[in-house]
Design a protein that fits this description.
InterPro entries: AAA+_ATPase, ABC_ATPase_HisP-typ, ABC_transporter-like_ATP-bd, ABC_transporter-like_CS, MetN_ABC_transporter-like, P-loop_NTPase. Helix content is about 40%, strand content about 25%. By secondary structure, it is of the alpha/beta class. Helix 3 packs parallel to helix 5, helix 4 crosses helix 5 and helix 5 packs parallel to helix 6. It binds adenosine-5'-diphosphate (ADP) and magnesium ion.
């Protein structure tokens, strides 16, 4: 098998005294789609935030595209270039237009020429099906539209991996579908993805691998068919019983 694009090996993390990630191991291959679920507080956000060093781990190894994350700032920057992240709460810049939200990092951080950044941004807005919103401010858009802008923004630096942390949890129900559609499209194009979500219809359709976390541990890793039909772990079974 080729080298995994994400390697998480024996990772432990504490918030002060609180042991939040316990011996976490996960490998993600290029093109693989991983869906992570589990009860609130089980460490899902913390785990994926460690992958682009929004959080530090205290022991074990995390590497993206062969680059190990640690105190080396250059390595952290190199990993962040390769990883796009989408949060539950959109996190768009409210004082910038949609187009400016998309061109800011390419122009200011990556040194892309403004005109090239704009044409990439417009192509991505087409891809998330809101090119007509380019000149608006985030506050003028619906939640679903804002989240699609956030996805387009994360794609602007051409990441090798996309991380989604409950991207539809803050949306009104009628807007969940349009965001999941965009994510399914990305998956179909071959993007490597880790999605924390409890949208199990999406998970069944898109995931190659399901991961269940509980109390800081990964307790089950399985293909969706097995995961949903015959979960091996009692805690997984109980959890699925509650949410499906
Ligand atoms: P999940 O995303 O699965 O709901 P999180 O990774 O957000 O879980 O949180 C895991 C646990 O760590 C929770 O008990 C949460 O309260 C705690 N936690 C999260 N962030 C912090 C922090 N910055 N400081 C202290 N505790 C935290
Ligand atoms: Mg979370």
């Amino acid at each position: 098998m080729s080298t995994p694009i994400i390697e998480i090996k024996d990772v432990n993390k504490w918030y002060g005294e609180f042991h939040v990630l316990k011996d976490v191991c996960l490998e993600v291959a290029k093109g693989e789609k991983v869906v992570v679920c589990g009860p609130s507080g089980s460490g899902k956000s913390t785990m994926i935030r460690c992958i682009n060093r929004l959080e530090e781990h205290q022991s074990g190894r995390i590497a993206v595209d062969g680059i190990e994350l640690g105190d080396d700032v250059k390595a952290v920057e190199a990993v962040r270039r390769r990883v796009g992240m989408v949060f539950q709460s959109f996190n768009l810049f409210p004082h910038l237009t949609v187009l400016e939200n998309l061109t800011l990092a390419p122009v200011k951080v990556a040194g892309v020429a403004p005109r090239e950044a704009e044409s990439t941004a417009m192509a991505l807005l087409e891809r998330v099906r809101i090119p007509e919103q380019a000149g608006k401010f985030p506050g003028q858009l619906s939640g679903g539209q804002q989240q699609r802008v956030a996805i387009a923004r994360a794609l602007c630096l051409k990441p090798a991996v996309m991380l989604f942390d409950e991207p539809t949890s803050a949306l009104d129900p009628e807007m969940v579908g349009e965001v999941l559609d965009v994510m399914s499209g990305l998956a179909a194009e071959g993007m490597t993805m880790i999605c924390v979500t409890h949208e199990m219809g999406f998970a069944r359709a898109v995931a190659d691998t399901m991961v269940f976390m509980d109390e800081g541990r990964i307790v089950e890793v399985a293909p969706p068919a097995q995961f949903f039909q015959s979960p091996a772990n009692e805690r997984t079974r109980r959890f699925l019983g509650k949410i499906i």
